[in-house]
Task: inverse folding
């Protein structure tokens, strides 16, 4: 196996454990915003979409089909990112404590 | 430099997720994660040499517009559908990244790259079609009842085997057709996998698809050798998996059980044998009187509240009771609604402070000292047979033990069983009052009666 691939697996496993640790104790109240926020983060695939889309449109770059699919990849990822963060913010804006009652 | 900037973005994701664990810091956490995404996007744009800007900019503009419109227009009751749709967009994007890579660089791949491309395609496609079937079910475009296909399991197993064969052929050979074949078959698996799952199991399904959309992003990261994707995707994959397991636990069901058994299909047998049992029918006046003379009231919201958009009128009623000096709280089951935490969002929308919301463990010891429990559109999560009747299909599922309260008021459209299709003994108890009506209309009438008292 190539070194790049192995270091990729190392990064993946470590990040997954960080994810488990960070999320494990989130109260049920926040499950919906957490999910939609996490969903927006999975839109990081946008970076990949931009990289592959950048290389389309010329000779030897996958042809028209690649251009179309690249465009769709960027579009779908952007919907996920922009929509996800915006709607999460909309939700969290509504979460308030009872006025006057301090912790 | 580029790598360091991606690392910075990943750190912002982690800090953001961490802060999203507490109501006070959650909004800032979301902003941090969004900044991380901005950093990552800016970094990749700067790093490009001679890119085809038209494609990228067009995608960014179109995607931002659609995303913003969807996010700003959505009703809070429709959140589960929207999250399902966003999951789907994330999944298809990861799949497309792999496909474009296939068109561009196939000749240069080693075996590992071939495998990650296949995984990215398969997971992405399953997430995409699965999410949109879930979307259709939540939106009511497809029946929420489990749709079981004859020979479904055999069919699924056959397709899964075919996918494995395609992966082997595609990775070891030179042809690209196995990759395209995998797109089609994985898409079919996504549809067949979610179709048989009943509406009551949607919280589990949405969580699982959320997790898959993260894993898909990670595999796309392997395809193009980018750590930002691998880390971001792994974080989401882990987060989604935790929620999936928690939801499964809240329903006393394993993930395999949710995925591979059409729930409503087995349990509907129990319905219909108790049609003639007497119930205490109550009028809005009766309910108003019961509430007015209570000292403590716990409201149990369920999906019916969401459907009727009754969160605001519920809050209005609660305020009215609080003004009379009555202690009011909300008891929320983890799987109330159609996605984890859905009820909390609806009540937050209606300005209910989050410290009045109690989860399962907090509320169960409270019921015994509660004068009136007001159940608005909830059913299975308060069904005592989950605790008492070992023959019940939902036996063992943790419930809100509302039957321990002095008086139980159930606001419900009819006696019809809930999503799980199981009769509820709670409705026939002496201490239970049934107010048959749409949740919103019922509560409005109760408020009117209270004001006239």
Result:
């Amino acid at each position: 196996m190539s070194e790049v691939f192995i270091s990729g697996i190392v990064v993946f496993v470590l990040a997954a454990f960080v994810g488990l640790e960070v999320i494990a104790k989130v109260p049920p109240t926040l499950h919906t915003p957490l999910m939609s926020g996490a969903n927006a983060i999975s839109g990081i695939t946008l970076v990949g979409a931009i990289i592959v889309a950048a290389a389309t449109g010329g000779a030897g770059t996958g042809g028209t089909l690649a251009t179309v699919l690249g465009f769709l990849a960027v579009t779908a990822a952007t919907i996920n990112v922009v929509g996800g963060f915006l709607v999460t913010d909309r939700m969290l804006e509504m979460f308030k404590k009872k006025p006057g009652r301090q912790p | 430099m580029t790598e360091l900037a991606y690392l910075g973005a990943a750190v912002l994701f982690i800090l953001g997720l961490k802060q999203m664990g507490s109501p006070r810091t959650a909004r800032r956490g979301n902003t941090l994660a969004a900044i991380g995404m901005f950093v990552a996007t800016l970094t990749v744009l700067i790093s490009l040499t001679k890119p085809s800007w038209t494609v990228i900019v067009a995608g960014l503009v179109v995607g931002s517009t659609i995303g913003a419109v969807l996010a700003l227009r959505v009703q809070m009751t429709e959140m589960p559908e929207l999250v399902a749709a966003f999951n789907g967009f994330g999944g298809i994007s990861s799949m497309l990244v792999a496909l474009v890579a296939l068109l561009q660089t196939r000749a240069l791949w080693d075996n590992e790259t071939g495998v990650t491309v296949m995984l990215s395609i398969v997971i992405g496609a399953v997430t995409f079609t699965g999410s949109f079937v879930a979307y259709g079910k939540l939106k009511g475009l497809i029946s929420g009842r489990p749709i079981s296909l004859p020979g479904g399991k055999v069919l699924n197993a056959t397709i899964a085997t075919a996918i494995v064969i395609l992966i082997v052929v595609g990775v070891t050979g030179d042809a690209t057709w196995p990759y395209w074949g995998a797109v089609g078959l994985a898409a079919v698996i996504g549809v067949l996998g979610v179709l048989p799952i009943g509406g009551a199991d949607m919280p589990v399904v949405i969580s699982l698809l959320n997790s898959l959309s993260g894993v898909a992003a990670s595999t796309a990261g392997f395809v193009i050798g980018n750590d930002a994707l691998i880390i971001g995707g792994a974080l989401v994959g882990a987060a989604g998996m935790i929620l999936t397991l928690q939801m499964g636990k809240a329903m006393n069901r394993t993930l395999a059980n949710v995925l591979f058994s059409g729930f409503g299909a087995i349990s509907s047998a129990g319905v219909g044998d108790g049609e003639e049992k007497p119930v205490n029918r109550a009028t809005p006046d009766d309910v108003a009187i019961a509430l007015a003379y209570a000292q403590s009231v716990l409201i149990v919201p369920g999906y019916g509240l969401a459907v009727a958009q009754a969160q605001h009128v519920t809050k209005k009623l609660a305020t009215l009771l609080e003004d009379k000096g009555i202690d009011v709280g909300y008891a929320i089951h983890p799987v109330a609604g159609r996605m984890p935490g859905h009820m909390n969002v609806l009540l937050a929308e209606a300005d209910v402070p989050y410290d009045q919301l109690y989860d399962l463990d907090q509320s169960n010891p409270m019921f015994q000292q509660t004068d009136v429990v007001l159940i608005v559109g909830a059913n299975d999560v308060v069904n005592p047979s989950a605790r008492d009747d070992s023959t019940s299909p939902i036996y063992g599922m943790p419930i809100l033990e509302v039957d321990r309260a002095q008086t139980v008021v159930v606001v419900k459209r009819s006696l019809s069983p809930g999503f799980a299709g199981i009769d509820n003994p709670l409705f026939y108890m002496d201490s239970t009052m049934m107010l048959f009506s749409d949740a919103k209309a019922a509560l409005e009438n109760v408020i009117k009666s209270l004001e006239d008292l």
Remarks:
- Residues 74-265 of chain B form one domain.
- The first strand of chain B starts at residue 296 and ends at 301.
- The mean pLDDT of chain B is 89.
